[in-house]
């Protein structure tokens, strides 16, 4: 078989894996990192061992999927989540299209038109 130019393809693995016992960083319980899992990690080129046991990984994944965040830094990538903001401030303005009173979530400027909800739907691009 001719060796491939892609790493790991066309090569036979000579590494043998054996089950290892690791300690979960969340609950402190020992868990087994099986030989099959280690081989899977090597195929995917993961460089570190798992840090959590199966049940703590499932709990963490469920919390992440439900929108809960284990960090106090806000939402994804540290961004502020809408529910963490205070009450949004609205400003009164006159619609540039129909002249009706409108409430907008920004301070209106005289150089840009302001629209009520109905007129905005009519004139918005797209």
Structure description:
The chain is an alpha+beta fold and 126 residues long. Among the domains are: 49 residues, no CATH class; 33 residues, no CATH class. It is built from three helices and four strands; from the N terminus they run E-E-H-H-E-E-H. The strands form two sheets. It has a two-stranded antiparallel sheet. Strands 3-4 form a two-stranded antiparallel sheet. Strand 3 and strand 4 form a beta hairpin. The longest helix has 12 residues. The radius of gyration is 28 Å and the shape is elongated. The two termini are 55 Å apart. About 5% of the residues have low confidence.
Poorly predicted regions: 69-74
Strand content: 5-15%
Give the integer mean of the pLDDT values: 79
Tally of extended strands? Answer: 4
- Distance from N terminus to C terminus (CA atoms, Å) equals 55 Å
Helix proportion range: 10-25%
**Strand order in space, largest sheet:** 1-2
| Rg from Cα | 28 Å
Q: Characterize the overall form.
A: elongated
What is the H/E order? EEHHEEH
Structural class: alpha+beta
Main beta-sheet strand count, sense and barrel state: 2 strands, antiparallel
Tally of separate helices: 3
Topology:
Layout: E1 20-23, E2 30-33, H1 35-43, H2 54-65, E3 91-94, E4 101-104, H3 117-123
Antiparallel strand pairs: 1-2, 3-4
Question: Any key phrases for this structure?
Answer:
126 residues, alpha+beta, 3 helices, 4 strands
């Amino acid at each position: 078989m001719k060796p491939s130019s892609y790493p790991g393809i066309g090569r036979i693995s000579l590494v043998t894996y054996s089950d290892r016992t690791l300690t979960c960083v969340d609950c402190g319980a020992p868990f087994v990192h099986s030989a099959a899992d280690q081989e899977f990690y090597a195929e995917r080129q993961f460089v570190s061992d798992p840090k959590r046991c199966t049940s703590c990984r499932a709990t963490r994944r469920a919390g992440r999927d439900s929108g809960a965040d284990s960090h106090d830094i806000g939402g994804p990538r540290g961004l502020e989540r809408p529910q963490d903001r205070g009450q949004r401030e609205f400003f009164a303005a006159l619609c540039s299209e129909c002249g009706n009173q409108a409430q907008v979530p920004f301070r209106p400027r005289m150089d840009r038109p302001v629209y009520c909800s109905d007129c905005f739907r009519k004139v918005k691009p797209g």
